[in-house]
Amino acid sequence: MNLLVTGGCGFIGSNFIRQRLTEKGSPLTRLVNLDALTYAGNPANLADLADDPRYVFAHGDIGDVALVTRLLADHAIDAIVNFAAESHVDRSIDSPEPFIQTNVVGTLRLLNCARLHWSKLPAPRQDAFRFLHVSTDEVYGTLSLTDPAFTETTPFAPNSPYAASKASSDHLVRSFQHTYHFPTLTTNCSNNYGPFHFPEKLIPLVILNALEGKPLPVYGDGRQIRDWLYVEDHAAAIWLVLQQGRVGETYNIGGLNEKPNIEIVNAICALLDQKSPRADGRPYASQITYVADRPGHDRRYAIDCKKLQSELGWAPQENFTTGIAKTVDWYLTHRSWAADITSKKYARERLGTAK
Q: What span, in angstroms and rounded, lies between the C-alpha atoms of 136 and 224?
């Protein structure tokens, strides 16, 4: 298989690529990683794989029709996994337009290029071709404490510009399958966590702020509930869906770990108290600071992933206790990775020169 991965230098994409290139018996002949290297795209995430002869990095945007067309043809691509997206809710509230440009317009252009490439393939390769679109549970909106978890048939009700942009891209993917019989698959995941997570997201932010003696910001009352999915479990699920999922179908991927945000923060603090105690002996939880809630903050997300479990036999390998311990350990041993992002990426943004 010759595989095109978009957004592969980001958090989930880089974990997916690492898993694919390091697993035994991988069927990959070529893996092309197309990434625009915006603020969250970091080539250092895959630096240890740069010399793998199967790996090709292409710097560019999914909306660049000429570039995408050339990559598909030059590398005889058999499948696409689309991770490329603007994904931070707070940023979408501050500035929605980049989310529409990447998540909607970019996905549309990528779909068009992929469909034209697929239409010219010989019959056996055309039958085997797949386009897998990676999306989020936020397209479904919010739940009360007593509502059942999101299923693949839950109506869309996005509540942030980010969620609306991803819902739009999901609809585009579905329309290409229905209209053109283009072989698409969609996955909608819950909150991911694990190695290489960009430092502005909750779990890495809490770990790094704690170690640096900074406040640990918690929105509102901290009782917002999310389902937490270890990133390596997510990557394995995507690969399984790509290989065995039914064309045109959507599969929800969840970690089966619903927890309120404040419980996540306290769990991290407790682990750090054990693994890297403060010099003054005080608990890290003393750094918790409640801040004004995010506008339109959804109260609860929960994923029902029975379809994925029953059809394809998937199950998460990590529970939250094991996954969060691995995550804290990774950040404790990769302080320089986070420091490099903080010093270089954010500095460029403050200067208005982020690329």
A: 17
